[in-house]
């Protein structure tokens, strides 16, 4: 039996770089699973050239995943030690041609170091993949 999944469900994630730290020092990202329509649209982000070759727009895919998949954070400080307040757009927005409900502001993504942005985008995408164990249940 197929079970409907919640598009409002979130989960906490601590980046690999913070896992060795005391819990009070770790930054925790609140991530959400992407609606199937966003996941499918991510797979369609590509471009063709005059030779007929198609290349994936990996950067665009990451930005959509981050803006759609980050729901907030805790203990995320700027260089002066101040908490970075998480903000989002209200309503549906087009992010690289993909319609996303209440996406994070682009300026929020700018706060992420590139390696952390890559890690979070990968985790968000992985959470939208059905595992073999899920298929068995």
Overview of this structure, please?
With 137 residues, this protein is α+β, with helices and mostly antiparallel strands. It is built from five helices and seven strands, in the order ββαββαβββααα. A three-stranded antiparallel sheet has the order 1-2-5. β6 and β7 (98-101) form a beta hairpin. The longest helix has 13 residues, at 114-126.
Please tell me what the overall shape is. globular
Helix content: 25-40%
Please outline the major beta sheet.
3 strands, antiparallel
Rg, Cα atoms, Å = 16 Å
N-end to C-end Cα span: 9 Å
| Low-confidence runs of at least 5 consecutive residues | none
**Total number of strands:** 7
Across the major sheet, the strand order is 1-2-5
Beta content: 15-25%
Structural class: alpha+beta
Q: Whole-number average pLDDT?
A: 86
Number of helices: 5
H/E topology pattern: EEHEEHEEEHHH
Secondary-structure topology with pairs:
Elements: E1 10-14, E2 28-32, H1 36-43, E3 46-48, E4 54-56, H2 58-69, E5 70-74, E6 92-95, E7 98-101, H3 106-110, H4 114-126, H5 132-136
Antiparallel strand pairs: 1-2, 2-5, 3-4, 6-7
Notable characteristics:
alpha+beta; globular
Task: Give a short summary of the structure.
By secondary structure, the chain is of the alpha+beta class.
């Amino acid at each position: 039996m197929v079970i409907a999944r919640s598009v409002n469900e979130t989960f906490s994630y601590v980046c690999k770089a913070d896992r060795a730290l005391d819990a009070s020092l770790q930054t925790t990202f609140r991530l959400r699973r992407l609606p199937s329509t966003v996941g499918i649209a991510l797979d369609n982000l590509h471009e063709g050239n005059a030779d007929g070759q198609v290349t994936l727009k990996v950067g665009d895919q990451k930005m959509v995943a981050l803006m759609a998949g980050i729901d907030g954070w805790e203990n995320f400080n700027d260089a002066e030690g101040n908490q970075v307040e998480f903000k989002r757009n209200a309503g549906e927005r087009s992010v690289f041609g993909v319609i996303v409900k209440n996406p994070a502001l682009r300026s929020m993504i700018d706060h992420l170091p590139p390696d952390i942005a890559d890690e979070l985008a990968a985790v968000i995408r992985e959470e939208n993949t059905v595992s073999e164990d899920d298929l068995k249940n």
